[in-house]
Structures are given as C-alpha cells and as structure tokens.
Amino acid sequence: STVGKAIRCKGSLSHTAAVCRSSGEPLVIEEIEVAPPKAGEVRIKIICTSLCHSDVTFWKLKEPHGIFPRIFGHEAVGVVESVGENVKEVKEGDMVVPVFLANCEECRDCKSKKSNICSKFPFGVVPGLPRDGTSRFRDSKGEVLHCFLSVSSFAEYTVVDITHVAKLDDRRISAEKACLLSCGVSTGVGAAWKVADVEAGSTVVIFGLGAVGLAVAEGARIRGASKIIGVDLNPQKFEIGKKFGVTDFVNPKDCLDRPITEVISEMTDGGADYCFECIGLASLMNDAFNCCRSGWGKTVILGVEMHGSPLSINCLEILRGKCITGALFGGTKAKTDIPLFAKMYLDKELHLDDFITHEVSFHDINKAFDLLIQEKSIRCIIWM
Ligand code: CXF
Ligand code: ZN
C-alpha cells in the first residue's frame, strides 16, 4: 500500500524545496516530489531565484486567503530539464525565465500590442496552478503542496506551463541578471517604456523606490527624462536612487507643512508629465494623480492594492485631459520583451547590476525575507 508513503509517479524527481507551512512562518527546506511535466508544461531546474514583495504579501496572508502548505517564489531563471507533450518551443538545456503572467501568443490580447494580459490563460492569484488545476508538488508524506503565481521557484525543480516561459537564446547574460527580468525589473522598465512611453525631456515622479520604482527610474533615464523625482519615506533611498537616474528626492516626512502635490508642482513647473505609483496604496495613487500636470499628465499604477479600494478622482481633472492607467508586469509581454531587455542589458543600455544588493544560498532563504522586510535589500539573489 502507498498509504503514508510518498507517491512516486514515473519520472518524478525527489529534491528539496523551501516550503511555507503556515502564514508568516520561516520556510522549511524539505524533500519533495516533483511530478513530470504534463502536456504543454516544462520542468525547470532553477539556477537562482529572488524574492519579490508579492511573495512576502502572500506569505503573510492568513487563512482562508493565504493557502498553505505552499511553495512561493516567482522571480527566477533556470534550465529546462524535460518537456511535456506538445512542447516544441523549448528543449532540454535551454535557459528560460518563468513569468507569473501567461503569454500564449495566440489569443486576441497576446496578438494585440495594446494588451499583455493573455485571455486564453487568464491571470489570477488563485489558484495559480498549471492549466489542469492540479499541483505537481508533493511532500515526503505524499501531501499536495500548493503552487504560487504559476511559478513556485523556491524549489530545485518546478513545473511551469509553456505559456509562462520566456526563452533566452543569448546565453551571454548571467543567471542573476536574467533572474531580475522575471518580475520586478521588467515591470518597472516596461511601465516606463511601454505603458507611459516616457519621452526625452519629460518630468517623472516615482512613488516608492523598491525594485519596481527603481526600474521605472532606470527606464525613464534611458529614455532621456530630464527630471526623475523619487518619493520615499526612507531617506537612504535617494543615494540608492541616484544609481538608477533619480535626480531629485522628496521625503513626505519632510513636507508635513504643505501638501506633496504643491511641492511636486513647484519642482515640475505645474505638475509632472508622468507619475508612477509603485507601492499599492490608494491614497498614494491619489497623490500621484494629483501630482500630474493638468492637460496631459499621465499616472501609471503598478502597486497592488490588496483590498481593491476605490479611487476617487476629481472629474474636472479628467475633463482637463489628465489620465490614469495601470499595468500588470508593466505591460511587458514575456516571450518577446524579456529577450529584448536582455539584449539591452548586453548592449550596456540597461543597467542591471545595482539591483542586486545581496546574495544568499538556498539554505539561507529566510535571510532574504528578513533583508527585504527590513528594507535592507533591493534584490537578494538566492542561489540553488
Ligand atoms: C503581482 C502582480 C499582481 C498580483 C500579484 C502578483 N506580480 C508580481 O509580483
Ligand atoms: Zn513579483
């Protein structure tokens, strides 16, 4: 009988993963079983992964919203170990970047340059499972381990749908730089280039200088923005921001005597051309909108407001031509844009090195959590 024993289906791999057993608890390195990829899936040997704020957000969620036991992680790079039926796009040994957002390249959205939200494999944080709705992970007792954002990269091996994989043909990019392109950096750079389409000479305000906000700055710097204002409560973020093109800094703590909109309006001669919200707070989204120039100012929402709170916007400002939009993954299409970003890095246009502030080995993965939560790291690379 298999009762109480790990079920090893043919082709299963026995390896380790950092399992989250319950909300907010340190991850535990455990032996797990990773089933072979089904049709349309790829089994990936993770080279390195990093921690994004979304991992922390969902790790903190209490049941029933939080789902456990679970394997987190969604920013990573790896090598294809094996492919399921009907997978022609990649083969064993290819370098790939898994992505939380699908890109089937066949649906109306994937075919349109106006959207990056695949409608054939719709994005949802729940369940974030492969297309048949079942997990490929089991623990040593044979119990199912849940997936996260279709990626679950805190494991030596993971299984990801081919629609969630970008292939990197040019192997000159190092693993840790490729890893950054899997979520945060592509989100920020994409937002500046594809969503806002920042032009030379423009003024930009970025609310929140985490990896996403800094990547917006980097994207705006490359486009030749003349002023890039960072807004953050942590005064150390100005020095860090300068490396990514931030030219000016506003700490809301220092302008309690007058509204931030007034401060920004003065610095930008009547309001910024582009504002980006990279935190996920409705009140900051309002601030961002109010800091934009009447007439043409554009606000881009990147932060995830977990409660779906409504925004209240002055209707007359909309009449005057201001606009507000948002994007998942910065409007980036995984399969085509990630290789482009990698090329821009290799051409020395896009700077990636400074995003990596820390590196740890997989066994020390909980240190990566501490560093991000304490705002000591921008990106901590976790080596398998
Ligand atoms: C986020 C985007 C919105 C929902 C959760 C995940 N992406 C990556 O960090
Ligand atoms: Zn992320």
From TrEMBL:
The keyword Phosphoprotein does not apply. SUPFAM superfamilies: GroES-like, NAD(P)-binding Rossmann-fold domains. It comes from the Eukaryota. Its cofactor is Zn(2+). Keywords: Metal-binding, NAD, Oxidoreductase, Zinc. Residues 39-169 form the Alcohol dehydrogenase-like N-terminal domain. GO terms for molecular function: oxidoreductase activity; zinc ion binding. Residues 211-340 form the Alcohol dehydrogenase-like C-terminal domain. Belongs to the zinc-containing alcohol dehydrogenase family. Class-III subfamily. PANTHER family: ALCOHOL DEHYDROGENASE, ALCOHOL DEHYDROGENASE-LIKE 2. This is Alcohol dehydrogenase-like 7. It comes from Nelumbo nucifera. The lineage of its organism: Eukaryota, Viridiplantae, Streptophyta, Embryophyta, Tracheophyta.
